[in-house]
């Protein structure tokens, strides 16, 4: 998870960019922070999807095969 300080800094840079152009250093920092944020988000989303199990109204598991294969490979089931 990204630290609150980094998230705050991302927001500060975004707000500043709306008001005036960012310096080269700020642009570089913003890009790095965004990339880090996206990496953390993607990892979290991937973990969530890989752990999901889907059931129909009858109680039968209908988890997509691709997800079941990943779960089986990672020995989650």
Automatic annotation (TrEMBL):
An annotated GO cellular component: cytoplasm
In the UniProt record, does the keyword Coiled coil occur?
A: no
Question: Which residues does the annotated region (Disordered) include?
Answer: 57-77
Alphabetical list of Pfam families matching this protein: DUF896
Q: Tell me which SUPFAM superfamilies the record gives.
A: YnzC-like
Species this protein is from: Domibacillus enclensis
Q: Where in the cell is it found?
A: Cytoplasm
What HAMAP family does the record tag this protein with?
UPF0291 (MF_01103)
Q: What is this protein called?
A: UPF0291 protein B1B05_00230
InterPro entries xref list:
DUF896
Q: What is its main location?
A: cytoplasm
Q: Which family does it belong to?
A: Belongs to the UPF0291 family.
Which branch of life, at top level? Bacteria
Q: Which UniProt keywords apply?
A: Cytoplasm
